[in-house]
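Subject: Interface between my chains keeps coming out wrong

I've been trying for a while to get a sensible model of this assembly. When I model each chain on its own everything looks fine, but I need the whole thing in one frame so I can look at the contacts. Pasting all components below, labels as-is. Any help appreciated, I'm running out of ideas.
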Amino acid sequence: MNLRRDVFQAIADPTRRAILLLVASQSMTAGAIAANFDTARPTVSKHLQILTECELLDQKQNGREIYYHINAKKMKAIADFIEPFRNMWDDRFNKLETIMQKYKSKK
Amino acid sequence: MERKTKINAEDGKQELVITREFDLPLELLFKAYVEPEIVEQWMGTKVLKLESKKHGSYQFETTDTKGNVVFQANGVIHEFVPNQKITRTFEMENAPFAAQLEFLEFEQLTDDTSKLRMHIVYKSVALRDQMVQMGFAPGLNMAHNRLQDIVSKLK
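Reply #2:
Try treating it as a single job with all components included. I did that and got this:
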């Protein structure tokens, strides 16, 4: 539960969301990512660290460089997160609809 | 079955919006929120009190087959405009969650279809995320209780 909430805190930050969008298209080094932002390099590094700790980003060593790429599985988990909640309401509303349609035909 | 309910929960916000279109005339959709015996059926909980008027209040309670209370909730109705809107609070009892504010808007689409927009505001972003996470648990419990009821009647 805590891990999940951390993930949500991670993506609540606009810079971190921008980083995820950027890296979603191609894996990049920290330097290449930082070049896209006006923010100081250490700040970007901190964001990368948080995203990596939440497993939203993976690091891969390529020669001397470390490349960041998106963890598609984790990203999907966030998208799926709301599904059970939506299903609960959908079930309730389906029931409401059925009950009221019967109610209507009874009249 | 097609999932017709949409939920919009933006990152980092302490609110969410649930929307749903119904194959029901507006009056029937609204009635499903007003008549206690109908609310009981689709919410899967007992309605102890439901005063559908400004400054009215409501109380829900769900018990298991042994009569133990498994869910209690209550709230106050702030605005009540028939076939248009209900503004109310919702609070679970004996649970460490702050009350939430709910804005329900009912809209006619055609003579036979209608739309509900439910805007829920939570005390914090963390609480919203937690409620969404837990949201399905009471629902499952209730389904489980109903199943138990049916099974116990078969005996």
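Reply #3:
Confirming on my end. The first strand of chain A starts at residue 28 and ends at 29.
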